Amino acid sequence: MHVDLRTRRDEPRAAVDPEQFFTDDLPDAIARHAELIRPGVDWIRPKPLTIAVNGHEWTLAHTLDAPRGIAGSGVTLSDGGGGRTRIVLDPAHLDDLVSDQQSMMGLWVGGTIGGDGEGKLGDALNWWLVLRAALDGAPVYTPGSVDLNDADGRPLALDRTFRFGVDDPAEMHEFLVRAGFLHIGGLFEDSEMDAVSADMDRAVPNYSQGDGRSWWARSADGTDHLVRMQGFDHESDVARDLLGDRRFLDLADLSHAGHRFARKRSDNWIEALFKPLGIVAGVSDIGWHKDCGIGRHSYDCCGMTVGISVTGAGPTSGQLHALAGSHRALVWSGSLQPHVGLPDVPLATEKGDVTIHLSCTMHMAQPPETDVRRVMYSGFSLPPLPANDGAGPTSDERAAALARNSALREQAPLTALARNVHS
To answer: CA of 253: how far to CAs of 3, 154, 231, 357, in Å?
Structure first.
């Protein structure tokens, strides 16, 4: 079992032709992977979805009638409208969707799809699962399809807290790759976290709304709160030193996949977050999502996100939750899919503890109720893939995609959206 799930490179490719895609390419892909689609689509039973591109419409539907759709997949694809939900894409957005530069959730967050009178986001997310199964050869998740046992067949102790220097790194590796997350207790000293906390307070005046390097949220009394300070390594010598400490750097070795500390932006190696009480607007406590949830899973996953607990976090103080095994499940990526049934594991931490989650593990930040939480986030990336037949990654395309997705994350968080999602 491994965590390098990349199947695509940022290389020059022909643009998707909508007519050819819906007439030939998608039906062929569905037929090739019918056995990966049929169990999931029969479980989900998605409502018909119409996709319109350049004034032409195609409709995907689930069928129980013989001969069970395309190659027995349970899916039909017809020319014309009639879906319960209708989404409109321009050719560039269809190209992004097909090539996994953006997900259906990413298109919704960016305002490309959605809006009053256009049906339910849940319909679009359900058919996104079928699209990805057909194009990527991944099975649509069904309950019980993800094994949460160790290599000897014993159930993982999902609430386990590991300790460096005490627990076997091989056990920590196995837990991480099977569960998709890891909790390491007492990695950093209380005194170090107290120094970081003091630096966070001192850094607040150096950030302002609209500066492009901070996130803000509003509480019920109308107060605007600084909730995320990017580039905190420029504000805190202690935080910067921790990034060069072997206690932090050795975490990368737990994946056995060559992860390394290589941030996407050289000016943002680590971020410091405040988790205030009573937030009603803005990006603070993000609901269930995958970090790859708005796109590029097949280019970047799995990265390792490391959370350093500056203060403790529990049931009423903003603890992190992870959905065990979700990194191995093709499920909704930006909202909690109904009836998935994977274990919701709360990660209560003490000061100086560390959490690790893989970039395609579903997770959420529980809003604090009694105590403000402070935490820092950094992480590790997979090494670059080797060039494919001499055609290496195009850095400009990759940078553009990363910038677009970063902007989407800051524009609207991937939350468990209550409006217009479920059928």
So the answer is: 12, 24, 24, 14
Q: State pTM to two decimals.
A: 0.89
User: Is the confidence at residue 96, as pLDDT, over 80?
Assistant: yes
Contact 331, 340 (CB under 8 A): yes
Per-residue pLDDT of 352-399, as tens digits, reads 999 999 999 999 999 999 999 999 999 999 999 886 544 433 444 444
Whole-angstrom distance, CA of residue 341 vs CA of residue 208? 42
Q: What are phi and psi of 329, to 5 degrees?
A: -130, 130
| Beta carbons of 107 and 113 less than 8 angstroms apart | yes
Among positive and negative, which fits the CA dihedral 121, 123, 126, 128?
negative
Q: Tell me phi and psi for residue 357, to 5 degrees.
A: -135, 145
Q: How many residues does the chain have?
A: 423
Q: Is the pLDDT of residue 57 over 60?
A: yes
Burial label, 202 (beta-carbon count in 10 A; 0-12, 13-18, 19+)? exposed
DSSP secondary structure, 228-249, as one string? EETTGGGT-HHHHHHHTSHHHH
Report residue 274: phi and psi, to 5°.
Answer: -100, 140
Mean pLDDT of 86-106: 95
The angle at the Cα of 397, spanning 391 to 401, to the nearest 5 degrees, equals: 135
Alpha-carbon separation of residue 20 from 15, 25, 95, 255, 372 (angstroms):
11, 6, 12, 40, 53
Per-chain mean pLDDT for the chain: 90
Strand, helix or coil at 34? Answer: helix
**Spatial separation of the C-alpha atoms in residues 294 and 406, rounded to whole Å:** 10
Q: How far apart are the first and last CA of the chain?
A: 35
Contact 358, 307 (CB under 8 A): no
Contact indicator for 185, 348 with CB cutoff of 8 Å: no
Provide the token pair at 309.
């607990």
> What DSSP state is assigned to residue 372?
-
CA 254/CA 182 separation, integer angstroms? 10
Rounded to whole angstroms, the Cα distance separating 408 from 423 reads 25
